[in-house]
Amino acid sequence: MGYWSSRSVGRAALLALTATTTVAAQDRGTLSGRVTDAGSSAPLQAATISITGTGFGASTRADGSYRVSLPPGRYEVRARLLGYEAQRDTIQVTSGGSVTKDFALTKGVTNLEQVVVTGTRQQNRTVVEAAVPIDVLTTKDLKMSGRTETAQIIQMLAPSFNFPRATIADGTDHVRPASLRGLGPDQLLVLVNGKRRHTSALVNVNATGRGSTGVDLNAIPASAIERIEVLRDGAAAQYGSDAIAGVINVILKSNAQTEFGTTIGQTAEGDGTVSQFSASQTLKLFGDGYLSLSGEFRFRDSTNRSLPDTRQMYFAGDPRNNNPARQTHWQGDAKTTDYGAFFNFGKPLSSSAELYAFGGMTLRDGKSAGFFRRPLDDRTVRAIHPDGFLPQITSDIIDYSIGGGMKGAKRGWNYDLSSIFGYNQFQFGVINSNNASMGTRSPTDFDAGGFDFNQWTTNVDVQRQKSFSFLPNPVSVALGAELRREQYTIFQGDSASWIDGGVRVLDGPNAGARAAAGSQVFPGFRPSDEVNESRLNVAAYVDLETSLHKRWTLGIAGRAENYSDFGAATTGKIATRFELTPSVALRGALATGFRAPSLTQSWFSSTATNFTGTPPVAVENKTFPVGTPVATLLGASELEAETSVNVSYGLTWSPTKSFTFSTDFYRIDVDDRVVLTGNMINATTRTLLSNNGFSGVGGARYFTNAIDTRTDGVDIVANYGVALTRNNTLRLGLAYNNNVTRVTYVKPTPAELATLGEALFDRSERVRYERGQPRSNFRLTSDHQWKWLNSVFQLQRVGSLVTVGSVTNIFQDQTFTPKWIADANVNIDVHRQLTV
After folding, report:
1. Is the pLDDT score of 338 beyond 50?
2. What does DSSP say about strands 73-80 and 48-51: parallel, antiparallel, or unpaired?
3. Euclidean distance between the first and the last CA atom of the chain, given in angstroms as a whole number
4. In which element (H, E) is residue 632 found?
5. What is the mean pLDDT of the chain?
6. Per-residue pLDDT reduced to its tens digit, 16-56
7. Where are the beta strands (DSSP E) in 253-383?
8. Which end of the chain is more exposed for a tag (fewer CB within 10 A), N or C?
């Protein structure tokens, strides 16, 4: 970690902002033309025009046109677009002259020359040419996955990506966390059109991703996506905080055909019904402008795989205990309904400037269950629920973002000025429940409150090619600055959801004992939980990339950031690729990274009901912000940023244009990881809580920089495509990921906790980080296209994982064995405009 003052970072940002005025313009010529589909002559938007051996290039507009300003010289020009065969030609540019070159692209057998925009500031890098591993998921890949949720689609197609299915996990049932390379959801940066995406307001307090806040990928409708680029390498020096594990860049559609689609289905058990309807259309605006619109409705019904509950339900001697066992629990997917709409807009203002905007909104209603309260439980008001009750959590989630900017070229520099605002709100409800401390006066439905998060990010990015006498090729020089404001708010629920009504247990063996306060399954946010906190971040970066030899490329990046709440950080990265032969190349990268503690981790405050032990016993656990007096009494200290070192190295092999193979090894060391402590539930801890005004709360926890971890892994990816006959093609794919995370250091337990007999980080938390996600993922794919019939078959093996529970520090592990998953998708073109 390095430390910069705000003034130093400001100077660096000012340098990036004013760089365009310090370089004199050169005498240049102009290359222009159009790119079309060879079969239909339709214009192709977003095709990439690159100048071989340089960083010069452009993307085609809605009408297929492009324009590139070049110094005088002879160049090779390439035109590429996903799903088409690349074309190239040679041109001669003179000072002040104009050259026209059109390209007509034919649809290709393979997609092995995808041009990527993630992980590089240049416009001519392909997946094979990149110095770090990148996956590109195309529109066709998304459609043929057979999935309806964006995160589910990525999980099926990218082997290093994990999207677990939590159950009985409070809000995590409604906004499921995603992770890359076995790290945390908050160590994965998500971009939309290359711009930072805001995170959810939800803190995951149970199950996978515990203690983290990630991006809700399912808030981006799959129907709005043109492609997804997955950068599997640390990139904090290029993109900032959170990019420790990698980056996912979602590219929205800019040339969508008019399209309507629907998917309807259910599980073989007769539940889990899925209904999805989507529509996309691109409108031409103002001649050469475009507006791409996408809308989606998605309903996913719940699943339930629980068995009959054989526990004693009523007090001893009650004849109803002889009744047949009932299915009392709901263990499976939550019930969710999503409404989403996104747009993507672009309008050239001149031959060298374009105005753009994008954004969208998603609304989600959800419902999931907690743990069944038996009739004999003191948390049950038996006058209201004589046979017990299954309390349920409902959610109202609003997620929206809007942004835009202008990009173009000026005085030899490519520039991009942008600003984007994102907002997420999570409103909790509780139904079919009671507040035992209110007795028979208790309602059964509650407004439990919630939280929201917003983020406003403004960026200035400039890039150009600069020649130096001591280097054989021009250097791509990219500079940029970022200003980001974040705000986090918790708002209280209605009083019945959190109040201690003062009523004692009404009947049973414990009649007269203190009754549990608050709504069962999720006690509402109290007035003392309310917060409204914000912070500012300013950053500046430099990113250099060049070819030291026709076979050797090198990239260097550095970034400095300053947060108003925790301080400053500097990171760096060096990446290189060397071609041993025209078909074999070595590549590798060394990067330092960081992740600033999120506002949610610094200020989250809530009470959650956790069940521990055998038989399960309910415990009300309170999460205390680190700066509160109670957290201080428990040994909490101010949070620090996580820091990381990411080393990767690998090999790519492309003997033909129809076959590629890559293998990449990596090691990611993360120090000072921000985690939730274990649940502190000793009697001495409960006494301390009661003495400080938290009577009825049975446990405590807080966020802390408790551990260092090391993740070792390997990615193997192979793709092959062949034209068997005319209109008969076959694509084969293999992907494998294996990663192992180990906790290498645990911070000593503070004296304040030791005297209470508590541990800062217990074994159950350790197992969660080391074995809580599958260590391996293997996938084989076959994609066959014959005239009007497209068949995709996939065989996948997901590795084992372990969960752990404890009763007074006696731990019990449960191992889930590896699973094989087979998928088949068949598409039939019934008509030119209808596919089933």
Report:
1. yes
2. antiparallel
3. 55
4. helix 629-633
5. 88
6. 434 333 333 446 788 999 999 887 788 887 788 888 766 67
7. 259-265, 274-285, 289-300, 335-350, 353-369
8. C
Q: What would the pLDDT profile of 545-600 be if each residue is shown by its tens digit? A: 998 888 899 999 999 999 998 889 999 999 999 999 999 999 999 999 999 999 99
The DSSP call for residue 472 is S
Q: Name the pairing type of β-strands 195-196 and 188-192.
A: antiparallel
Site of tokens 């971890």: 709
In the numeric block, which tokens belong to residue 155? 């999980």
- Tell me the CA distances in angstroms from 350 to 61, 67, 96, 292, one per residue in order: 12, 11, 18, 21
Please name the residue that has the structure tokens 């002889």.
322
- Strand locations in 677-818 (E): 699-701, 703-725, 728-746, 776-786, 789-798, 801-807, 810-816
Contact 300, 267 (CB under 8 A): no
Annotate 715-729 with b (16+ C-beta within 10 A) or e (fewer): bbbbbbbeeeeeeeb
Q: Tell me how far apart the alpha carbons of residues 666 and 646 are, in angstroms, rounded to a whole number.
A: 7
State the Cα–Cα distance between residues 653 and 586, nearest whole angstrom: 9
CA atoms in the 13 A half-sphere facing the CB of 41: 0
Phi, psi of 607 (to 5 degrees): -115, 130
3-state secondary structure of 375: coil
* SS (HEC) of 567-618: EEEEEEEEEEEEECCCCEEEEEEEEEEEECCCHHHHHCCEEEEEEECCCCEE
